TrEMBL record, chain A:
Family that this chain belongs to: Belongs to the TonB-dependent receptor family.
Transmembrane segments: none
Protein's organism: Salegentibacter salinarum
Protein name: SusC/RagA family TonB-linked outer membrane protein
Main location group: membrane
UniProt keyword Metal-binding present: no
Domain TonB-dependent receptor-like beta-barrel residues, every copy: 439-801
UniProt-listed InterPro entries: Beta-barrel_TonB (IPR000531), Beta-barrel_TonB_sf (IPR036942), CarboxyPept-like_regulatory (IPR008969), Plug_dom (IPR012910), Plug_dom_sf (IPR037066), TonB-dep_OMP_SusC/RagA (IPR023996), TonB-dep_OMP_SusC/RagA_CS (IPR023997), TonB-dep_rcpt-like (IPR039426)
Boundaries of every TonB-dependent receptor plug domain copy: 118-237
Mode of membrane association: Multi-pass membrane protein
Tagged with keyword Phosphoprotein: no
GO MF: siderophore uptake transmembrane transporter activity
UniProtKB/TrEMBL annotation, chain B:
Pfam families in the record: SusD-like_2
Name of the protein in question: SusD/RagB family nutrient-binding outer membrane lipoprotein
Length: 1060, 463
């Protein structure tokens, strides 16, 4: 009944709309103030309606409007202009260039466009061109350094679209999570991540957006900006607006963009080239007296690589042409480098856009093919995007936005126990990579380097199963990881201009994907052969109804929004893995499982129902106040506690209106307050049991480790923000500064509790974490002449976090822990301290002098794993972007940086422990190699205070015992590094071919550019070989320890853009 | 005009309503109910973990490291007890506390009795390793986040009475889903009494009177009478239920452990028939050669030159012996010697060795010859040493139990001290207890060990 009424009412409005005021035609030409040239592509809109057109190639337009209408002329890079028709038939308009877009329109929450100057909170916009500068593999990585307050922690390019983690304004969640919501043209899309903290890094799903489709990205940083997203917007929102066609342009525009780049592995960790495999400096010998390489030892504490003829691993394979032969035991300085290949990244994008008076469209197709620097790795990606808009009449517009993305990848594994992560961790410096490259003999067997020792009676090896590590080529070709994703996202919507000041829109938004992940472990390598396959499906629907009201009454302007949304998510997966091996070599299928395969099926459902309203009032275009409220009902919260209200207030004042001080072009003061909230994942409020191993048809069930909580409440964030927006000297210089404070209370966390309770953690509303900081964005044009212009933007953010409170009786929250060789380390948060302290074993020190305490053997003493090394979070993050235009040349360079923050490096620790690091072959103060016997002056010089006698001691100790058993194994203080860096992330040098060239060719514009991505680390405090900007480890929210990081990739290429 | 707003507002109201489909937040992926015996079965899956541990084998010096020597050098490091509370114990506690057990799985009293017995067995192992541990306040979930550490003496006292109570609860009728005793309640009752007996012996130094009393009470109630009463966890020949050592030696290709010189020197000269099960002859010589415990590897060929684990020990479906008839007989022999019971110590000793050889080799053919060896024959003048040394050989691979007996008796008295580091006398508490249960943790180490959570503190019964 209600539905019928609604339909009838809507029909009634459609009829009314047909009989509105009389129309007449207005025509005119739009020109540019500076040079008098005509301006094509200017939007000409009848104010308060959806009636509009666009100027043609000669800058002419024609539009049917009411005699009392007001026309609005807008074009990117020009100041908006309004002209009352007042009965005129011809209206010519001169547009002035808008250098920094004071009157720019920004896209705010729910896709509502607003005048930037009316906003009482901080947002920062990034132009779409920044996302295609150098062909970044994961589009979100391009945000790094471009927005003050946004920290991006990335993965190495070897991962081909690996994880790029985004944090806005510090860590606002005790659990370390809290990533911003991604919204594309109003449709929230998933940014989930299927990667674990090691293994293949599948990357976050936000990368399914085609960078070539991005018109602009607007970052809503604080809860006020994102208040209209309620429970989902607590950690900020990244609003992506895609390109569309333009109504009115009758011709079709075709754009072609081609990138070809080569990718090179870079940033190798230095290694020593003096000593090879082994535990001691002498060779073991075969029964015939031939010395042989210590095959079973994956360390380099062995004999000097002095060219002694020895039997290498390959010489024990009877099928090897070198069987039985001796070859020199000599250094292989480039053995790690030789493994990597030159990768390629080829990217083609075609877009076709156009329209006529009442339709517009843009179709974009992308094909990306990447071959990685690790052998046998690739990513193939395709995107198709279609934006259409159709005016059914001058009141009703139907639009649709459909995006398809497909990823098909075979990726390398990262982490110390995976893939090639072992190279600097456990390896022999004498291994010849070129020998390993032919990893499979003609009889199908595999060649490995890490084998059991030959028999001391026969001198032969009978068991060729590799001991701990596979030949890296075996890893690359036999232990493959494949992932494939098909995804659709977008929306279909109707907008109805009910009244000139009232617009109602309804949208159905969807994001759905199917992700497949397969892993294989081949026969003939370490471990049990196996195969796993998972199919993950996610469908997220949003049904949205929105009414917007805009009206001016004299000096007052009123802007109101009222809306509702239903969010509905259904996620399911089926995962299967073989157990106990495979029946048939090469048959990778669950049917090949020898034992009962592991299987999991999972279903998740979640709904959020929301209603919201926002109202903004402006006075004389100078004072603005705004308030919003949202109500969210989440299905994951207990029924009696599932409805919550989130208000926000903000205000701004354009104070430059009151001053005549000439240098100040524009000045605005703003302040805001908001509450935001978040709920929790489903099924955490009721008890359940875990299904365990089946023993002889006995099904075991057990109590889960995490204790559910039926009384959970949503968490609340309170935030305050004040800021000032200043523009000087006609926009030559701009400064935008914001101070913010965010207080997150009643965080829903899985709090670690003593295991003696029977549980490891409990879901609780616990604690309070605060963040405050300053964001600064300085823009300027230091040089501007007729044919030279230099624009620069500097973004800075300084953030301070504090864990104010946890839970009564609990004053530490354990975020994560690792154990290696029985030594623990933790990332903990303590009450009264910044979030995320690194905890581990330190040197024991003399209290008076701070010197290291030594034991009776002069080895350093260490604390237990409770020493607090301080927070991992950086003090300062930012970016420095430069654009230089010189004639037809354009040079763009992006530098981003971070000051402070720290991490443990397990790679470096193990490089030292296993005798690969150059420090293990250093020359000591006696002039001897540290590996030389102590009696010959060798050994590592250690000084400190004897714990027994209290005397100062300086002594030499055996290098292997010192590095391998003590420092490189137990003292994490040594492996703690500052994460500060300054990185040159992108460089692009382009040339735009002038009209002279164009006349001979059927092109409208051609730009050819040299591009370089990640060409250089300009400065870092951490040792060479570890890139602190790439320590994102898979799905880990906080990067705090590095282990088996993928090799950095430097990429150089050409980019060609053609517009027809 | 007004109607527009009314419609808008009313549709928004519909949108924003807090009643959801009842099912939406009910977890379809996990059962919300579990039977008592399924929880007990899950708790039984943790049994082999009590024994199967390189660290335990290093404590009793059964095994030496061939490569990556480190753990056997007795580093000062923490060892977590959390998984014992989180896996077997909370499941057993849930059964003990449950008021909804289903009699279709066997008499409810028997389900509870088995849960109590297993809980006591786990706690006995835990307290012997660490000393005072959370006991009375433990396993209460959200009702007590910070359980206090109870003195070991109080834990022992309570375990005695809990085991007695559990034995008394047992009624006729078997239970389902029993992995170790297949629901045989008579075996469970004997097992409970055997535990009391072995625990009582642990008090031989700290409180012999109490020990004697409890020992006699347990024996009177009926302890193991043959190897068929043993508590043995039998792994299966499938990847889900395989033994720890199979995963290490076969799946991961790790030949990291050789028999120690101490063990081989104890067994090889007397032609111990169990040695052929315990280890393999060295590949290079075909002889049994033990590796010196805690010696840094120097050649990288240790795996060739020393005796590695026996194939029965690392078989996929290897049995793990936890509480055995052999132990009962060694205990009887010792109790005679201590004057706790009457009888013939030598006879018990001989029976114990026989039971051990039967358990390990499956036959008793070589027992007489073996016992006739003067090195093995019962030495009445050094009875405790004789018993303890053979018990050490018998307890092979259950290093933690053998280590407890070493701590109590001091035998075998030829364990080595790698790099001058003595054999530890306890495990350090988990280091995250210093974060999660700070006050109680520090109180416990102050009370017992003068504030130092060292591996060289002595637990209560270890005087």
């Amino acid at each position: 009944m209600r539905n019928k009424l609604t339909i009838m009412a809507l029909l009634a409005f459609f009829q009314i709309s047909g009989m509105l005021a009389q129309q007449n035609e207005v025509t005119g030409t739009v020109t540019v103030a500076s040079d008098g040239m005509t301006l094509p592509g200017v939007n000409v809109m009848e104010k308060g309606t959806r009636n509009g057109t666009v100027t043609d190639m000669e800058g002419n337009y024609s539009i049917e409007v009411a005699a009392d209408a007001v026309l609005v002329f807008s074009s990117l890079g020009f100041e908006r202009q309004e002209q009352a028709v007042n009965g005129r038939d011809i209206i010519d308009v001169i547009m002035t260039e808008d250098l920094e877009g004071l009157d720019e329109v920004v896209v705010t929450a729910l896709g509502i466009t607003r005048d930037r100057k009316s906003l009482g909170y901080a947002t920062q916009e990034v132009d779409g061109e920044n996302f295609t500068l150098t062909n970044e593999q994961n589009v979100l990585g391009s945000l790094s350094g471009r927005v003050a307050g946004v920290q991006v922690t990335g993965a190495s390019g070897s991962s081909m679209g690996g994880t790029q983690k985004i944090k806005i304004r510090g860590i606002n969640s005790l659990s370390g999570g809290g990533e911003p919501l991604l919204v594309v043209d109003g449709t929230p899309i998933s940014n989930a991540n299927f990667a674990g903290s090691s293994g293949a890094d599948y990357g976050n799903l936000g990368q399914d957006i085609n960078p070539n489709d991005i018109e602009s990205v607007n970052v809503l940083k604080g809860p006020t900006a994102s208040a209209l997203y309620g429970i989902r917007g607590q950690y900020g929102v990244i609003m992506i607006t895609t390109k569309d066609g333009g109504k009115g342009i009758k011709d079709t525009r075709v754009q072609l963009s081609t990138n070809v780049s080569v990718e090179k592995a870079g940033n190798f960790m230095p290694v020593q080239n003096m000593y090879g495999a082994g535990s001691s400096q002498s060779f073991s010998t075969l029964p015939n007296g031939d010395p042989y390489v210590a095959l079973g030892v994956d360390e380099s504490w062995g004999p000097r690589m002095d060219g002694t003829p020895v039997r290498h691993a390959w010489s024990f394979y009877t099928q090897d042409p070198g069987y039985g032969e001796l070859a020199p035991f000599s250094p292989q300085p480039d053995n790690i480098k030789n493994f990597y290949e030159t990768g390629h990244n080829i990217n083609n994008n075609v877009s076709v856009s156009g329209g006529n008076e009442n339709t517009s469209y843009r179709l974009s197709v992308n094909d990306t093919r990447i071959e990685g620097v690790e052998p046998n790795t690739y990513l193939k990606r395709n995107n198709i995007g279609l934006n259409t808009s159709l005016d059914i009449n001058d009141k009703i517009t139907v639009n649709s936005n459909v995006n398809y993305a497909r990823n098909d990848a075979q990726r390398p594994q990262q982490g110390s126990e995976y893939g090639t992560g072992y190279f600097v961790q456990w390896f022999q410096r004498n291994v010849d990579m070129n020998k390993l490259e032919n990893y499979q003999y003609s009889d199908g067997t595999f060649q490995h380097w890490n084998l059991r020792s030959p028999s001391s009676t026969t001198g032969e090896i009978t068991n060729f199963n590799p001991l701990y590590w596979n030949n890296p080529y075996f890893e690359a070709y036999e232990n493959t990881n494949n992932d494939r994703r098909d995804r659709f996202f977008g929306n279909i919507g109707v907008t109805y201009q009910v009244l000139p000041e009232l617009e109602i829109s309804a949208n159905v938004r969807s994001d759905m994907y199917t992700q497949n992940i397969e892993t294989r472990r081949g026969f003939g390598g370490t471990g049990v052969p196996g195969y796993t396959v998972g199919k993950y499906q996610n469908t997220e629907m949003n049904y949205e109804l929105l009414a917007q009201y805009n009206k001016e009454f004299g000096d007052f302007s009123i802007n109101g929004t009222l809306g509702g949304n239903i969010f509905d998510r259904r996620y399911s997966y089926v995962y299967q893995g073989t157990q106990g091996g495979l029946t048939t070599p090469g048959f990778y299928n669950i049917d090949a499982s020898i034992d009962r395969p592991t299987t999991t099926s999972y279903l998740l459902r979640k709904q959020i129902r929301s209603g919201f309203a926002m109202a903004s009032v402006g006075y004389q275009d100078t004072y603005f106040v705004e308030a919003s409220i949202r109500n969210d009902n989440s299905s994951t919260l207990p029924e009696e506690n599932n409805s919550y209200w989130y208000p926000s207030f903000s205000g701004s004042m354009v104070f430059s209106e009151f001053t005549d001080w000439k240098p100040l072009t524009f000045g605005k003061l703003r302040a805001s307050y908001a509450q935001a909230g978040s709920d929790l994942a489903p099924y955490q409020t009721s008890n359940f049991y875990t299904v365990g191993t089946v023993y002889n048809n006995i099904n075991t069930l057990s109590v889960p480790n995490s204790l559910p909580n039926p009384n959970i409440l949503p968490s609340f964030a309170h935030s305050y923000e004040i800021g000032v927006d200043l523009r000087f000297l006609n926009n030559r210089l701009g400064l935008d500064v914001t101070y913010y404070e965010q207080r997150n209370k009643d965080q829903i966390i899985d709090l670690d509790i003593s295991g003696a309770t029977g549980y490891s953690s409990r879901v609780l509303n616990a604690g309070e974490i605060t963040n405050n900081g300053i964001e600064l964005s300085l823009t300027g044009t230091p040089v501007k002449t007729d044919n030279f212009r230099w624009d620069a933007t500097l973004n800075l953010n300084r953030n301070r976090s504090e864990v104010v409170e946890l839970h009564p009786g609990i004053d530490v929250y354990q975020y994560g822990s690792t154990t290696y060789s029985s030594v623990n380390s933790y990332l903990n948060s303590y009450e009264g301290e910044p979030f995320g302290s690194l905890i581990g074993q330190a040197y024991q020190r003399d209290e008076a002098t701070g010197q290291i305490l030594l034991d009776a053997n002069n080895m350093p003493l260490y604390t237990d794993a409770t020493h607090n090394f301080g927070s991992v979070l950086p003090d300062l993050t930012g970016g420095f972007q430069n654009n230089i235009q010189f004639g037809n040349f354009n040079l763009a360079a992006m530098i981003d940086f971070q000051k402070g923050g720290q991490f443990f490096s397990r790679s470096k620790m193990l490089a030292v422990r296993t005798g690969q690091d150059p420090v293990t072959v250093a020359t000591n103060s006696n002039g001897a190699n540290v590996r030389d016997p102590l009696e010959e002056g060798g050994g590592v010089e250690v000084s400190g205070i004897s714990a027994d006698t209290g005397e100062e001691v300086t002594a030499f100790v055996d290098a292997r015992s010192y590095y391998r058993n003590v420092v490189g194994r137990r003292i994490y203080e040594e492996w703690l590094y500052d994460a500060s860096y300054i990185k040159l992330r992108e460089v692009r040098l382009g040339y735009t071919f002038g009209p002279g060239v164009m006349e001979k060719l059927p092109f409208e514009a051609v730009n050819l550019a040299f591009i370089a991505r990640n060409p250089a680390m300009l400065w870092q405090n951490a040792p060479e070989g570890i890139d602190p900007s790439e320590i994102s480890t898979g799905s880990q929210d906080i990067s705090w320890y590095e282990s088996g990081q993928l090799i950095s990739v430097r990429s150089y290429g050409l980019n060609l853009n053609i517009t027809f | 005009m007004k109607r527009i707003y009314i419609i808008l507002l009313s549709s928004l109201f519909i949108w924003s309503c807090n009643k959801f489909d009842d099912e939406i937040n009910t977890n379809p992926n996990r059962p919300s109910e579990a039977s008592g015996t399924q929880l007990i079965a899950s708790a039984q899956l943790s049994l082999p973990g009590l024994s199967s541990s390189p660290k335990g084998a290093f404590m009793a010096q059964y095994l030496a490291e061939t490569q990556y020597v480190g753990q056997s050098l007795y580093p000062q490091e923490s060892t977590s007890f959390y998984s014992w509370y989180q896996s077997p114990l909370i499941n057993l506690q849930t059964v003990i506390d449950s008021e909804e057990l289903n009699g279709n799985d066997g008499p409810v009293a028997n389900q509870k009795a088995v849960a109590k017995i297993l809980k006591a067995y786990y706690f006995w192992n835990i307290t012997d390793r660490w000393g005072d541990v959370p006991y009375f306040d433990a396993l209460q979930g959200g009702d007590n986040y910070t359980p206090t550490y109870d003195p070991q003496e109080e834990i022992y006292n309570d375990l005695f009475s809990e085991l007695q109570e559990a034995g008394d609860m047992i009624v006729s009728g078997s239970i389902n889903n029993d992995i170790v005793y297949n629901g045989d309640m008579a075996k469970w009752e004997k097992f409970a009494n055997t535990l009391r007996m072995l625990m009582a012996l642990r008090l031989s130094e700290v409180d012999p009177d109490k020990g004697s009393t409890e020992f006699n009470a347990a024996v009177n109630d009926g302890v193991f009478e043959s190897n068929s009463d043993n508590l043995v966890y039998r792994h299966l020949a499938d990847a889900d239920n395989q033994s720890y050592w199979f995963g290490q030696v076969v799946n991961q290709n790790r030949e990291w452990w050789a028999l120690t010189e101490t063990l081989v020197e104890e067994m090889k000269p007397v032609d111990d028939p169990r040695l052929a099960v315990y280890g393999e002859p060295a590949r290079s010589s075909g002889e049994y050669v033990g590796l010196e415990f805690g010696k840094e590897e120097v050649t990288g060929t240790e795996t060739e030159e020393y005796s590695l684990l026996g194939s029965d020990i690392y078989a996929q479906d290897a049995p793990v012996y936890l509480v055995t008839y052999g132990q009962v007989l060694f205990a009887m022999a010792e109790a005679v010697e201590r004057g706790w019971i009457t009888g013939d110590a030598e006879e018990y000793y001989n029976m114990a060795v026989e039971a051990s050889i039967e358990q390990w080799t499956g036959n008793t053919d070589e027992v007489d010859e073996f016992l006739n060896n003067p090195e093995i024959a019962f030495d009445a003048d050094n009875a405790i040493e004789s018993i303890s040394n053979q018990r050490w050989v018998h307890l092979y691979m259950f290093g933690y139990e053998a280590w407890s007996e070493w701590r109590r008796t001091g035998y075998p008295n030829d364990l080595v001290e790698p790099n001058g580091m003595a054999v530890p006398t306890r495990l350090s508490y988990p280091d995250n207890e210093a974060f999660n249960n700070e006050e109680n943790y520090y109180e416990a180490i102050d009370r017992q060990f003068g504030g130092d959570d060292s591996i060289y503190g002595n637990v209560w019964w270890d005087e």
